Inverse folding.
């Protein structure tokens, strides 16, 4: 059974993508807590692994649905083609994430997988299995819009939260005692963040896997479980190094600032998850940090990163799509 | 470590620690000048020259910090204060240590012979300068608290209290300078070249005090002009 080999490959690549999400994206989200020293590295790894897993397993359904069949109407395609397409999408996303990570580009796993699934859809169109109109452009447009809205929303919430902390607390009480209280509150937001991140980003791995498993309407629990485990292993085996490295770069983030940024990011990401929108947690976090900066909370914010993010955004979609089209075509021709 | 993506880049270069370090160096330079004048009084000319070199080195290091700040505070950074205000403040602060360096050199130009009470007056002037830069340093160091409280009204008010004190001390410094000038021009026995040189010292020590007062004014503009 040739198709079984493809399914096994998809499971392996899917696991790699989940692992990478844990190793890099989850780690970046958690690094804010390490940078402010609200938690020790060990505590963060345990907390992040458990809550990322919970978020993924219990709240990852909607976004997985969007990635699996929200953009490409897989129910209209032959199952073989779906296996090829979803595997090609996973492979290209995995490859692109690896290349971009190597060059330290602030790319998003989410953008990669959405671009890749779109590539799969376009490849199916080019072979006349689908018509161009059957690709769900309206959903894609909503997803792209959510990518623009989410960092802005993160920034707005973080701005308001930090402004409130500033006006109500920092103006009245000694900054030392305010920070002390937020040290404990930041444990809560860190957990909130890990849960939210798991609920959204797991779909980048589980979406294509669900499609391959002949997804009809309900995401099988074990698929989410599998994704959640992959993320948790990613945090434990590589993420801790990323947390350490990134944490050292963000020592500017005190407890109050970390709280504001994390609360804003987690709220935005969780809202996106419940709407089924696959968004980039990292980009939302960057938006939130900038929001804290606008509220006068940071010594220095590097706005150049916005350009870099927009650039990597524009590159990721076509690259991931093109890679998927090539891989899919190869599979169709040779299998 | 190659395989990682980072949000860390969103945190830009922060010039505030370096600004405070630069201010501390200005304070140290005045301290060295004070030692230099003590050595002059004791006619320890070897030590005077050593101290000149030490001040030189300190000034050079301060220049490097200044360049570092100027090179890194780019337009794409979002700082809690205006970028131009910050750079202008730094420029004036740098005048403090520059003038220290000038004086450090000028005292080695020639071995002057003057009565002891003139040295006493110099010592008073140097103590006053030290007092100014001590306040000045403390003021600039509190920028850390300003940022931590994100410029809470209370903290801003507390820091602003340094400025009238520094201005008052600078005024007292002026009076000491006037007294010293009067004394120097009435040294009937002294060599006119000695007098000429010492008058220049007094004037440049005045510039040090002046730079500290002007820098604290630029500091106020920077903090209040957010």
């Amino acid at each position: 059974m040739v198709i079984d080999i493809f399914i096994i490959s998809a499971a392996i690549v899917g696991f790699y993508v989940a692992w990478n999400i844990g190793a890099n994206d989850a780690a970046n989200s958690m690094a804010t807590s390490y940078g402010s020293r609200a938690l020790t590295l060990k505590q963060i790894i345990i907390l992040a692994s458990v809550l990322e897993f919970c978020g993924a397993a219990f709240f990852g359904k909607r976004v997985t649905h969007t990635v699996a069949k929200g953009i490409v109407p897989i129910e209209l395609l032959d199952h073989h083609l779906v296996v090829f397409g979803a595997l090609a999408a996973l492979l290209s996303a995995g490859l692109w994430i690896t290349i971009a990570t190597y060059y330290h580009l602030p790319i998003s796993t989410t953008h990669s997988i959405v671009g890749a699934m779109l590539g799969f859809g376009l490849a199916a169109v080019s072979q006349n299995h689908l018509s161009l109109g059957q690709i769900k452009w309206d959903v894609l447009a909503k997803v792209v819009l959510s990518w623009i809205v989410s960092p802005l929303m993160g920034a707005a919430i973080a701005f308001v939260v930090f402004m409130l902390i500033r006006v109500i607390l920092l103006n009245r009480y000694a900054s030392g005692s305010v920070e002390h209280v937020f040290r404990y509150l930041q444990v809560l937001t860190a957990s909130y963040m890990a849960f939210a991140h798991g609920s959204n980003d797991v779909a980048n791995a589980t979406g294509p896997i669900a499609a391959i498993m002949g997804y009809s309407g309900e995401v099988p629990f074990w698929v989410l479980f599998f994704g959640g485990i992959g993320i948790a292993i990613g945090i434990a085996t590589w993420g801790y190094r990323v947390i350490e490295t990134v944490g050292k770069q963000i020592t500017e983030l005190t407890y109050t600032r970390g709280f504001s940024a994390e609360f804003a990011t987690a709220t935005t990401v969780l809202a996106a998850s419940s709407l089924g929108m696959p968004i980039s947690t990292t980009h939302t976090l960057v938006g939130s940090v900038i929001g804290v900066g606008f509220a006068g909370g940071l010594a220095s914010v590097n706005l150049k990163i916005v350009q870099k993010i927009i650039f990597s955004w524009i590159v990721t979609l076509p690259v991931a799509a093109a890679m998927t089209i090539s891989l899919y075509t190869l599979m169709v021709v040779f299998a | 470590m190659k395989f990682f993506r980072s949000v860390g880049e969103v945190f830009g270069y922060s010039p505030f620690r370096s600004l405070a370090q630069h201010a501390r160096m200005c304070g140290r330079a005045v301290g060295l000048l004070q030692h230099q004048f003590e050595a002059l009084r004791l006619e320890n000319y070897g030590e005077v020259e050593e101290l000149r070199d030490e001040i030189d080195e300190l000034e050079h290091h301060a220049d490097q910090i200044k360049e570092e700040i100027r090179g890194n505070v780019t337009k794409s950074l979002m700082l809690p204060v205006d970028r131009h205000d910050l750079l202008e403040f730094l420029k004036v602060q740098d005048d403090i240590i520059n003038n220290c360096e000038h004086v450090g050199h000028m005292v080695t130009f020639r071995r002057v012979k003057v009565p002891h009470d003139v040295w006493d007056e110099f010592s008073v002037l140097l103590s006053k300068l030290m007092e100014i830069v001590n306040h000045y340093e403390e003021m600039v160091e509190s920028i850390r608290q300003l940022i931590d409280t994100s410029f809470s009204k209370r903290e801003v008010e507390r820091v602003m209290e340094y400025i009238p004190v520094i201005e008052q001390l600078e005024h007292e410094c002026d009076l000491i300078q006037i007294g010293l000038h009067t004394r120097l021009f009435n040294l009937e026995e002294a060599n006119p070249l000695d007098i000429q040189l010492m008058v220049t010292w007094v004037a440049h020590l005045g510039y040090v005090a002046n730079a500290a007062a002007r820098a604290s004014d630029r500091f106020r503009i920077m903090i209040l002009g957010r």
About this structure: Chain B has a mean pLDDT of 95. The two ends of chain B are 39 Å apart (CA to CA).
